[in-house]
Design brief:
By secondary structure, the chain is an alpha/beta fold. Helix content is about 25%, strand content about 25%. It contains 12 helices and 19 strands. The strands form 3 sheets. Strands 1, 12, 13, 14, 15, 16, 17, 18 and 19 form a 9-stranded mixed sheet that branches. Helix 5 crosses helix 7 (about 145-155) and helix 8 packs across helix 10 (about 230-260). Residues about 1-25 have low confidence and may be disordered.
């Protein structure tokens, strides 16, 4: 991989490429599926492709939207060490937001600043962290309760390295006296007083050092405000997001003040790809957490404020023609996490005019498709899909084929390709 592969429009030294090719002086932008299809014509599907031009454009858009605050890269959104490393070499990106502690320990062998975005109950990994001064200086664990503090403290034991700790503040919107909960069911810490109390409990434990705070407003960052369906539904989402943005700005600032009265904080993390502008405007927030916008999966098609370029695709072969109105591809049931629904299905994007058969959807070993795009398909042809979410695609493939302009410039392993399955 090159040292700065995503520097849009910037001259760069010509790196070594497969087959002796060299990179152009000015890197190309997004190219679209027809060009990607031509570039990958020699591959056998199923395979996954990343359009580096689209990825570059998305990274530049994210940093502009972040308003000058650094973006901590969400590793679960990429799940590829090569692309994580290259993204962190871009201006505007700093640090990793990991999703498990074993993953964080693995990444910290190479990277110096890894925050685990979720509490860990992996006592073996906690013990390893506490026994290694180098890893303990690079990895920060997440806590949100006394119960978890007890688990962490017991796993660390009485002696060893001091472990860095971050508090997770609940960012959900609670209305009607708490009877209406809008947002993720994450941390029990909701009020500034609760955050301060847990901060005091952390500082009372000699093996722990409080260094940061975090809150993820999933009801803003992770919910598109321009989705399909009735206009009234979109209006309701926008109203909820305005109310939540206003409420969280005040509560988060108060919580940060309360925690800082106990201990100095190195960072306060917030946001996500869908809320970079609003979260970066909060003075209490020092950095943002995001990553999905780099691949721009299908769920990001439904935001008014930004339009990322689809960068990650997967390709499946046509293996059957059950009749003139249907074509069947191999596999296809690469369903995204979340509440079950059609928005969790991969989206067939090429050829245009393809859709699922309602009775079957996306299947484990085969997926029948229908629509106008079926007419020209024959056995052996390819159908291009976009996953509904970002990094989950990488749990299905061992490698990503990186296309820049009209050619494959590299093939890099995913976490799965490196034999790592963290969740």
């Amino acid at each position: 991989m090159t040292q700065q592969p995503y520097a849009t429009g910037t001259p760069t030294p010509a790196p070594h490429r497969p087959g002796g090719a060299t990179a152009p002086a000015v890197l190309p932008g997004p190219v679209g599926v027809p060009v990607l299809q031509e570039a990958t014509a020699g591959l056998q599907p199923p395979f996954a492709v990343v359009d580096l031009g689209a990825l570059r454009a998305n990274a530049a858009q994210m940093t502009r939207r972040a308003g000058g605050k650094p973006i901590r890269l969400a590793s679960k959104s990429l799940r590829c060490r090569a692309l994580i490393g290259d993204t962190l070499r871009l201006p505007g990106f700093a640090g990793i937001l990991a999703f498990t502690l074993p993953e964080a320990l693995w990444l910290a062998e190479e990277h110096r600043d890894v925050l685990v975005g979720y509490p860990s109950a992996d006592t073996d990994a906690l013990a390893r962290l506490g026994a290694d001064e180098r890893l303990a200086a690079r990895v920060t664990v997440m806590v949100d309760s006394i119960e978890h503090l007890d688990l962490v403290t017991a796993a660390l034991g009485p002696t060893g390295a001091t472990v860095r700790v971050c508090l997770d503040l609940d960012a959900s919107l609670r209305l009607a006296g708490g009877r209406l909960h809008l947002g993720m069911r994450r941390s029990p810490l909701h009020t500034p007083g609760q955050a301060r109390d847990l901060a005091l409990a952390v500082t009372a434990r000699p093996r722990l050092r409080l260094v940061g705070g975090m809150s993820y407003e999933g009801q803003i960052a992770g919910v598109g405000d321009d989705g399909p369906g009735p206009r009234a539904g979109r209006a309701a989402v926008r109203l909820m997001q305005r109310l939540s943005t206003r409420e969280l700005r005040e509560r988060r600032a108060a919580a940060v003040r309360a925690v800082r009265s106990v201990a100095p904080l190195e960072f306060v993390n917030g946001g996500g790809t869908g809320s970079l502008e609003s979260t970066s405007a909060e003075r209490a927030v020092t950095e943002l957490g995001a990553g999905s916008g780099l691949y721009a999966p299908a769920l990001f098609d439904h935001y008014r404020g930004f339009r990322p370029h689809p960068a990650a695709h997967f390709v499946l072969p046509v293996v059957r023609r059950p009749g003139p109105r249907h074509a069947t591809v191999l596999g296809g049931g690469w369903i995204a996490s979340g509440a079950p629904g059609t928005d969790r299905l991969p989206v067939p994007v090429w050829p245009p005019g393809l859709r699922y058969v309602a009775q079957e959807g996306a299947g484990e070993v085969q997926t029948p498709l229908t629509g106008d795009g079926v007419a020209g398909l024959r056995a052996g042809d390819r159908v291009w899909f976009r996953h509904a979410k970002a990094g989950e695609l990488c749990e299905r493939v061992n490698e990503l084929h990186l296309v820049d302009g009209d050619r494959i410039v590299d093939v890099v392993p995913t976490y799965r390709g490196e034999g790592r399955a963290f969740l």
